[in-house]
Design goal:
mainly alpha, two-stranded parallel ribbon
Amino acid sequence: MAGPAPEPLERPPYPTGWRPVSPLPPPIVPVPRSEPDGVGWAFIPLLTCGFGTSPAFVYVAARHGSARLGVIGAGYAVASGASLALLAAIPPLGALLLMITWIVGSVHAFVARPALFPSRTARDRLNQHAVDVAKYRRVLRAEARKLVTDDPGLALDLCIGRPDLPRVYDDGGLVDVNHAPSQVLALLPGMTDELVERIVRLRSEQGTFVSAEELALVAELPPDVVPGLSEYGIFLP
């Protein structure tokens, strides 16, 4: 004879301000220990007698996607080529042009270095790390949404959009509006207790929703709630 059914476990209350995210830890994105300050780059024209000025500026042109820097690099290439030609034809004039190109290119590189290689503090790098993590979680949400579209049954098995359930799949912080409990719905951006009660009541009376736009229309949600609902909400059947 089977024993009594086990009592359901009580879930701990959600902490204030908790966001609908995966139970998995945030993805680790390596933070660079140091940023190039461009000092070595600035020394290239000086150490190469000016012949490295053109490649140096072409490099930063490609790095910054700057056509202006590319034109500057081409100009230094023309000047270097002309100095070599003059060295063969008129050595004194060629040597003078080579010296001018060398000095101008070296000074130009040191003057331009701070703008081309801005220094970054530890705070800057940590902020960039936070941005990288947020962008990565956005990618995870896009991948999870595609899985929801391609295979809704698998999405249900993986508990996509259900941060209240045990799971191993990281969906980037999605919330299944059609099935998640009210405690989770309340954590969607812009949601209030009144809106959550309205959504729960409507989905119990009318069934599931198919999109944030339909839900916003039926539940008469404020316009400022819809963007957050579209970003974090999914609507599994």
